[in-house]
Amino acid sequence: MDRRTYLSTSAATIFAGCTELSGADEPDADDDRNGSESTDGDESTDGATDDPNGSDQQDDYPELAGSFDNFEDLDEWWEWQDIGFLEADRSRSYDGTQCALLTSSPESEGQVRIRRRLDEPIDVRDVAPGLALATDTDQGVVRIQLQDEDAHYLEYSTQFPGGTSLTHDNFGVTRVRGDPDLSEVVVLQVIRWFGGDAEGRQWVDDFHFVPKPERGKVLLQFHGGYEEHYTDALSRVSSTGIPAAAFVPPERLRGGESAEDDRLTREQVGELADEGWTIGVQAAAGRHLEAADADRVEAAVVDPVEWLADEGYDDVGRFFAYPYSQYSEAASELVRENYDLAFAGHSSAQGFARNPHRCSVLTNPTPEEATAALERTVRWNGITTFAFHRLSSQNERTEFEETLSRIEAHAAAGELDVITPAEMADEYVY
After folding, report:
1. What is the reported pTM?
2. Burial 83-109 (b: 16+ CB within 10 A, else e)
3. Which class in CATH covers the domain with range 64-211?
4. 153 near 182, Cβ under 8 Å?
5. CA–CA dist 115, 329 (Å, integer)
6. Whether 388 contacts 232, CB under 8 Å
7. Which residue intervals of the chain bear CATH 2.60.120.430?
8. How many Å apart are CA 243 and CA 264, to the nearest integer?
9. What is the pLDDT of residues 400-417, one digit of tens each?
10. How does pLDDT run across 196-234, given as a tens digit for each residue?
């Protein structure tokens, strides 16, 4: 079988022209700890570009793209009084001889903040920030604020698992305060939110910037290999001409070793591919890769590679989705060795993928969450992946329909492009 797994430009009619991380109990992250935030609808247009083709030149990255601070000199950074501690850790690093260690304190309200005031303003309109991260807690939320002279800022965030070595993560837009002048950013602030009065340690290294696309990009995905992706989603998606991707656990396809009645059949997956859908794989639902033993992790990650090849679904690349966005160090290493892209996380409107094996994804967004994520994607020229699992209830189908309609409207207006995983891998990895 030699099926196409994505729509070609001539046949696809690809249209061209978010919710905050963590819980509601998090205290406001403004400089004065009680300032007000603007909504996306009130933001200025700093950073928006007006390229009619929406193309990106890989050999023409913004000047600021790349490593910016490797934390070799912590004198340029300082921690907020009574909001945690900052020190050098020479026992580990991503780049150089040390990294920065952020530790919460009983008085820090579950957070640590460090900041650096720049000698000269920087222009961040065409780039997005990122860090290499590690923590000793189960998971972490880290925020990066890019502030102008008036303390107005654009904030990027990421949520990531604990127990891994220092690894780059992809940050997405989650908050805006005021009307930030991104051409004149003078303060960089990093905030680690542990939650409540929790204590913990956070390692950060390689503060860097990645390019942003010249127009927002969206990926549409369906995870879990459920039959309703064929019976309910296929016809609606096909009517729009928007490319989609299905991430399936091969062993749970009906007729497989651990088949379930509500899963796709092998033939239905083939029809999705014939309709132009990209076919990727996901470890079997319920098998959390951070908890399984080594043999099971290897089987869950590596065995589907052979299935993709046998079915002819790997002709444009191999793509993987982590179940529940959870994994261990061993699982992530196997994914890096065997796949071109992988999807995990909880962010929207990220920049180019600094870590292509942890591309951000919003799973089962409500219409309100999808609307906010799309506005950020358009406004800040970001990349957002929407993933849907079950469409078995009327409410689930309605929420999917509303999100798809919003994507379709933005794409038809020329405000964003809907791309495939292959296009993401080829054009938007830094």
Report:
1. 0.86
2. bbebeebeeebbbeebbbbbbbbeebb
3. mainly beta
4. no
5. 29
6. no
7. 64-211
8. 19
9. 999 999 999 999 999 999
10. 767 789 999 999 999 999 999 999 999 999 999 999 999
